[in-house]
Amino acid sequence: MGTGYVGTTTALTLCELGHQVIGYDVDPLKIASLQNKNLHFYEPGLKDLLVKHLHSGNIRFTENIKQAVQQSEIIFICVGTPQNDDGSANLEYVQQAATMIGNYLNNYKVIVNKSTVPVGTAEKVTKWIHDSMVSPIQYDVISNPEFLKEGTALADSLNPERIVIGSHSEKATDKMKNLYSKFKTTFVHTTPQTAELIKYAANSFLATKISFINEIARLCENVNVDVKDVAFGIGLDSRIGSSFLQAGIGYGGSCFPKDVLALLSTAQQNNTNLSLLEKTYSINNTQPFYFIEKIKNKLKDIKGKNIAILGLSFKPHTDDIRESPALKIIEELYKQSANIFVHDPVAKLPKILSQKITQIHSIHSLPENTDALIICTDWPEYETFDWLQVKQKMRNPYIFDGRNMLNASNMTKLGFYYDGIGYRQ
Ligand code: UGA
C-alpha cells in the first residue's frame, strides 16, 4: 500500500526474490502510470525492473483495495508520514491504510509497517485495524523499517546491510524470515517499538555526522585547513567510518529533516532532552546561509548579479527537490535581487519559482556575463564540464562549490576563483 519510492522499490525487490506482489495506491494516476510501465518519479534502474516484472507477471497494480487486501498474505504499509506543524510525524495516511485493511480483512495476515513511524505506531495500527474490522480475524502488526537511499534505492534494497524485524509474534516473524530467506544478511529481531526507534536513531545519527563535519568545516576555514583532508583522516578509523562526512550546504530530502524533527518531538513528548540532535538540526538550518555569506563577501553586492545555480535536487541521481538546500539558496539570492539561472539534469523548478527564475537545460545556455556559479548538488556531470568554455561566458570566473566536488587546484589553474566549504584558500 503506497507506491512511492519505498513502496515501489520494496515491491520490485520482493518480485526479484520470486514473490507475487500487488501494488495499491489511493492515487489512480500513479496506478495507471505504473500499469503503463512508467514510474511517476526518477530512480535509476527501477523502470527496467518494473518492465521486467510486469512481463513476468510477478507484479500487478490495482485501485481495488478489497482485492489487494484479500489476495495478500503479507501487507506492507509504505505510505508517507509527512510533518505536522509541530514537527511530529503525521500518521493520517497510515491510519487510512490500517482502516482499509481492517475493513476487508478476510483471514490471518501480517501487516508490516515499512513507513517511517514513531515509537508506538505498531500498537496504534493494531488498534486501528481492530476498530475497523467487520468480524474478528487474527492478524499481527510488525515493524520492518526501510534503509534505502534515493538515487541508489534499488541497489540498497537488493543488498540490505541488515533487516530489522520488530515483532511480538513468532508466527509473523517466521513469515517475514521466510519472505526474506534469500537475503544473506544480518537479521535483527526486536520488539516493534525498538525497530521503530532504530529507524529514527539511524537517520538522526547520519544527520548528526553531516552536521558535525559541517561545523568542523567552519573551523577549518578559520585555521587554514581543508575539511576534506580532515574527513579522510578521521574516516579511516573504522570506529568513525568515512561515509556521511562530506561537508556541504547541509542535508535535505524527504527523510533527514523530517525525521530529526519527529525524533525531537517524540523525545519532548517523553520528557527527554535530545540536545545534541537539536544542534544537528540548527547547524543544518544555518549551513546554506553560512555559505551565502561567503558568496556575499566575495561578490560584495548580490543585487543585479547574474548567478547560475548548478543542481536543484537534494542529492544527485534523483529529481526530488523536497527540502533541498538549493531551494534555500535560490530563495535567499532572489530576495537579494540576483538574476538567477538554474541547471539540473533531471529536477525541475517548482511552479512558484519557475515564474521568477529561469531554468537552463545546458550549461552552454549560461547567460553572458555570469558573475558566479554555485554548485548545490554534486551531479557527476559537473566534474566533466568543459570548464574553460564555461569560463569564457563569465564576467567574473567565480565558482562556489557547495558540495566540495571539484578539484580546487585544477579550477584555480584554469583561472577560476574557487571556494568550497571548509576549504583552505
Ligand atoms: C536517507 C538515509 O540515508 C537512508 O538510509 C534512509 O532509508 C532514508 O533517508 C529514508 O529514511 O527513507 P536519503 O534521504 O535518500 O536517505 O539520502 P542520503 O543519501 O542519506 O542523503 C541525505 C542528504 O544528506 C542529502 O541532501 C545529501 O546531499 C546529504 N549528505 C549526505 C551530505 O551533505 N553529506 C554526506 O556526507 C552525505
UniProtKB/TrEMBL annotation:
Q: Where is the UDP-glucose/GDP-mannose dehydrogenase C-terminal domain?
A: 308-408
Q: Where is the active site?
A: C255 (nucleophile)
Pathway given for this chain reads: Nucleotide-sugar biosynthesis; UDP-alpha-D-glucuronate biosynthesis; UDP-alpha-D-glucuronate from UDP-alpha-D-glucose: step 1/1
Query: Where does this protein hold NAD(+)?
Result: D25, K30, T81, T116, E150, K258, R322
Q: Pfam families this protein is in?
A: UDPG_MGDP_dh, UDPG_MGDP_dh_C, UDPG_MGDP_dh_N
Q: Name one GO biological process term.
A: polysaccharide biosynthetic process
Q: Is NADP tagged as a keyword? A: no
Specify which residues bind substrate according to the UniProt entry for this protein.
F147, L148, K149, E150, K199, F244, L245, Q246, A247, G248, G252, K315
The UniProt entry, under SUPFAM superfamilies, shows: 6-phosphogluconate dehydrogenase C-terminal domain-like, NAD(P)-binding Rossmann-fold domains, UDP-glucose/GDP-mannose dehydrogenase C-terminal domain
Q: SMART domains of this UniProt entry?
A: UDPG_MGDP_dh_C
Q: Give the catalysed reaction(s), semicolon-separated.
A: UDP-alpha-D-glucose + 2 NAD(+) + H2O = UDP-alpha-D-glucuronate + 2 NADH + 3 H(+)
Any idea of its EC number?
1.1.1.22
Q: Does the keyword Oxidoreductase apply?
A: yes
The molecular function terms of the Gene Ontology recorded here are:
NAD binding; UDP-glucose 6-dehydrogenase activity
Instruction: Provide the alphabetized UniProt keywords.
Output: NAD, Oxidoreductase
| Top-level taxonomic group | Bacteria
Q: What PANTHER family does the database record attribute to this sequence?
A: UDP-GLUCOSE 6-DEHYDROGENASE TUAD
**Family per similarity comment:** Belongs to the UDP-glucose/GDP-mannose dehydrogenase family.
Query: What's this protein's name?
Result: UDP-glucose 6-dehydrogenase
Tell me which species this is from: Fictibacillus phosphorivorans
At the highest ranks, the source species' classification is: Bacteria, Bacillati, Bacillota, Bacilli, Bacillales
